[in-house]
Amino acid sequence: MNKRRIRPMAALWALGAASVAMVAAGSAAAHGFAGKRFFPATLATDDPFVADELSLPTIASQKMPGSGDDPATRETDFAIDVSKRVTENFGIGLGATYKVLQPDGGDTQRGFDNLAAGVKYKFYQSDEHETILSAGVDADIGGSGSKRVGAESFSTLTPSLFFGKGFGDLPETMKFMRPFAVTGLVGVGIPTRSATISISNDGEADVERHPHTLEWGFAVEYSLLYLQSFVEDVGLREPFSRMIPVVEFAMSTALDRGASGTTGTVNPGIIWAGRYTQLAVEAVIPANNRSGNRVGWIAQLHFFLDDLFPTTIGRPIFGN
User: Which residues sit opposite 65 in a β-bridge?
Assistant: First the structure.
């Protein structure tokens, strides 16, 4: 459920356009649908829908620049995220990430990052206008991870608003714009500790302040699936007819406590969406010098549990 960490994707199934239309019409309660619009699970920014889903694995790798006495370090993350509907519109999520840090000229460090947990409530949906709005809170649980890979000892809570909007309601004169969709979020990261004080070997105190942050981002998608099924048959065949080109922008802006500026990444990539799974790959490009200077990558296999197991673990705990 927490997207800024590493988010879900996947797909190895390829169904025809007719079956896509049937799914959209007959499974309005299934993952990521608003009317005919299917919103895929994104990797770097959390999506707006509530669903039963599993990302296993999500793998990301990027060379992080050095800072002060710390050398440049190759960071590789292996993550698992699972989300579960409690009711049709309310869900919970858990995530774990195993980190491998390989500093230039230093020893490799391995361990788990802090556990992530979250809740989300979908409070508005318009099938006619392909719109979803949700609110939720993500928590990075301090002290649950390993200090040797940088897991913080304090927790951070991030209440957020999530949105998704498809453009299938555009007029006929703009029909080739209809496959476009935008999803995104805006939230505030609230650390449970304002500062951490450490004492050096010579007895000097070092104070690291923890600012509040504005967490924001969005994804721009163009669904070839939607184009082929609901706009015009342009002759695309599998696997291309199941692809969704996407560009994600995942940003964080420091707000106070002596910190300022924005960091983040721009992630262009491809999602290959099937009936039960989704497969995605994106580049991870630093948005500015503050964010680094090396391009990385992220890939994910994502399972739609609500479609795989609609009568058992893929249904809400209460209702239906």
Answer: none
